[in-house]
Amino acid sequence: MSVEAVATSVAAPAAKPAVQGIRINGKQWHEKRAPLRKNAGLTSYQKRAEDTKVLAAIKAKEKEMKDEKEAERLVGLHYGRPTRTGLIKL
């Protein structure tokens, strides 16, 4: 072996990341956190307005469906249900 071969084999170890283990002062070790980005989730006004319109349309459709279901339920209740004074009149 020559001196050059030994020098290259010694100089080529892979760089290891710093090992983070037990802390010296006894505190619990935690992963490093990403920086807080307050503006990361903000959307434009136009996008929020479109979302509001879509949600309003969905809510109106759900209300319509609930009203239909309630009307069917009430029709079933009123017909043929005796009370103390007789049948319920519509």
Automatic annotation (TrEMBL):
Keywords: Coiled coil, Nucleus, Ribosome biogenesis, rRNA processing. Its main location: nucleus. It is found in: Nucleus, Nucleolus. InterPro entries: Cgr1-like. Pfam families: Cgr1. GO terms for cellular component: nucleolus. One of its GO terms (biological process) is rRNA processing. Belongs to the CGR1 family. Involved in nucleolar integrity and required for processing of the pre-rRNA for the 60S ribosome subunit. This is rRNA-processing protein. It comes from Lophium mytilinum. The lineage of its organism: Eukaryota, Fungi, Dikarya, Ascomycota, Pezizomycotina.
